[in-house]
Amino acid sequence: MIPPRLVPLLEQFDFACERLSSRMTGPVMDSGDGTDTRVGPMTDAEYLWEPVPDCWSVRRRTDGPGVRATALTGQGDWGRDAAAYPHPWPPPFTTVAWRLSHLTELLTLRADHTAGSRTLTRDDFSVSGDAVGAIDAFDAGTGAWREALVNAGEAALDTVGYCTYPHGSDAEEPFIDIVWWVNQEVLHHGAEIAMLRDLYRERG
Predict the structure, then answer these.
(1) What is the reported pTM?
(2) How many Å apart are CA 103 and CA 125, to the nearest integer?
(3) Domain residue limits at 31
(4) For 164-181, b where at least 16 C-beta lie within 10 A, e where not — what string?
């Protein structure tokens, strides 16, 4: 049984993930008013598009980090621009690639630190250099986090530190607050990615 107070949060998560996935892959997406709008799949050029100078993105390791970044996080041939705390201010503008990689890493690591080995780090996360790979990784991350949610019982929702994700306040907050936080991460990064898709389409 899914705890009743988790049900609306789970429904919101499912809706947000489905809407973002459809927004990135097409062939249709929910326009927000209940009608379907045709949209093409995201290309690699769009995934890596830098609409302003000095964006943070994902890059080949051989190219090194971008402007104001000091490292490329993740594993594999590609990494995501990053810097040690305190982070650059104002924050660098980030590409679809950066935002999607960040969101997918968050989902994947939180799932592991909730119902997996509780050992994964950012260095274990594989950063995708192409749109298809990144979307597939996002879908896998959403599936892993959802499984962690549906397998959490009523008592888990009030347990402080039920999720031990090391890059947030998870160890100090009850699990239901973390569930809420992950939802807003999907919602706000999903909106950002959708806006960047619109800007790319209209770039002239």
Answers:
(1) 0.95
(2) 12
(3) 7-201
(4) ebeebebeebbbbbbbeb
